[in-house]
């Protein structure tokens, strides 16, 4: 990463150059500001090689839902991921398709049992059915709101089996006093939600993940439209 931001090969990185590069991590300005403050130990607005590596390590921590603090530097995390900010949809799709899902199989089985006990309709749970489960955790409402936003990955106001597992995973993390991330770490995006995102042409077909008869009836025309529109343009 260093040659990309240290074009003069001076062994140090200016704040302006680092800001442009770190933006590609997909993290919020608030989080990136915190990372910079921790890495720029002497407050000079310049990072030497060692401080720059600290910044990269903290980016990796934030992307994997860990607390942005010097205590996290010794924790094992995958290397940080950077992408072109002009394609946010590709952020979690391409970067994480080969990452193992953070939700372990034994935990998934537990979450699936809770999911089934809530009487899903067509494999989906409405917000009204999930809300009591979330409130039951006694977590602050603002935290639960963030859990819902992060887990409703396709923003349809419903959670499918995998999205519900993400919500439960985040709730249990919060109960263990781990911070709920501001954006969903790539490792937490369910494998079922990753592949469509990496192929822009497949975007209109995302509803196919819900196994309802209605969506299958409406899919062919949507798929045909999606295939034809680029040609007519």
Automatic annotation (TrEMBL):
One term under GO cellular component: clathrin coat of coated pit
Superkingdom in the source lineage: Eukaryota
Gene Ontology BP terms: endocytosis; endosomal transport
InterPro entries: EF-hand-dom_pair (IPR011992), EF_Hand_1_Ca_BS (IPR018247), EF_hand_dom (IPR002048), EH_dom (IPR000261)
Cited SUPFAM superfamilies: EF-hand
Name of the protein in question: EPS15 factor
Matches recorded under SMART domains: EFh, EH
Gene from which the chain derives: Eps15
């Amino acid at each position: 990463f260093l040659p990309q931001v240290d074009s003069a090969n001076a062994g140090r990185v200016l704040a302006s150059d680092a800001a442009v590069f770190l933006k590609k991590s997909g993290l919020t300005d608030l989080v990136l500001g915190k990372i910079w403050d921790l890495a720029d130990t002497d407050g000079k607005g310049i990072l030497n090689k060692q401080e720059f590596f600290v910044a990269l390590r903290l980016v990796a921590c934030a992307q994997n839902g860990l607390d942005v603090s010097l205590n996290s530097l010794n924790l094992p995390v995958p290397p940080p991921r950077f992408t072109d900010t002009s394609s946010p949809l590709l952020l979690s799709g391409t970067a994480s398709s080969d990452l193992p899902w953070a939700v372990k199989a034994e935990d998934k089985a537990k979450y699936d049992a809770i999911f089934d006990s809530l009487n899903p309709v067509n494999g989906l749970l409405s917000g009204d059915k999930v809300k009591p489960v979330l409130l039951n955790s006694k977590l602050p409402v603002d935290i639960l709101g963030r859990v819902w936003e992060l887990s409703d990955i396709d923003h349809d106001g419903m959670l499918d089996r995998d999205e519900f597992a993400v919500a439960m995973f985040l709730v249990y993390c919060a109960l263990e006093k781990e911070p709920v991330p501001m954006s969903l770490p790539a490792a937490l995006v369910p494998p079922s939600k990753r592949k469509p995102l990496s192929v822009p042409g497949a975007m209109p077909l995302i509803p196919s993940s819900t196994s309802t008869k209605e969506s299958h009836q409406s899919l062919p025309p949507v798929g045909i439209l999606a295939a034809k529109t680029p040609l007519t343009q």
